[in-house]
């Protein structure tokens, strides 16, 4: 999996490209653990090219959720493929995390 960062003044966008599984979740955890991430008001996760997410990948987001909330950083997912979105729904994570259809909607939050 490839992760591309696009920072702006108040927002950091992470583009996930490929499969988020046990091995690539380490890379994502490293990205989200970086203290500079908490300097942004929003972290937007572009899931358009995310083809698969495993429990390890979901665990990375869950493990950072409280840290982001405590720091006042909004974590927003967008452009999620239906099969990935279904995983979030089945596990009830769509009620814990903000998921919107487009980058425009994510940026407006």
TrEMBL record:
Check the record and name the InterPro entries matching this protein. Answer: Anti-sigma_ant, STAS_dom, STAS_dom_sf
- Classification via NCBIfam families: ant_ant_sig (TIGR00377)
Q: Name one GO molecular function term.
A: anti-sigma factor antagonist activity
Q: Where is the STAS domain?
A: 1-109
**Family of this protein:** Belongs to the anti-sigma-factor antagonist family.
Q: What is this protein called?
A: Anti-sigma factor antagonist
Origin organism is Hymenobacter lutimineralis
State the PANTHER family in the record.
Answer: ANTI-SIGMA FACTOR ANTAGONIST TM_1081-RELATED, ANTI-SIGMA FACTOR ANTAGONIST TM_1081-RELATED-RELATED
């Amino acid at each position: 999996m490839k992760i591309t960062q696009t920072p702006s003044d108040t927002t950091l966008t992470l583009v996930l490209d490929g499969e988020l599984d046990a091995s690539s979740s380490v890379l994502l955890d490293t990205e989200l653990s970086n203290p500079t991430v908490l300097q942004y008001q929003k972290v937007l996760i572009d899931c358009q090219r995310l083809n698969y997410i495993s429990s390890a990948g979901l665990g990375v987001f869950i493990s950072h959720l409280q840290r982001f909330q405590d720091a006042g950083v909004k974590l927003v997912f967008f452009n999620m493929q239906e099969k990935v979105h279904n995983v979030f729904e089945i596990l009830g994570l769509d009620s814990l995390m903000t998921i919107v259809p487009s980058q425009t909607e994510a940026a407006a939050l």
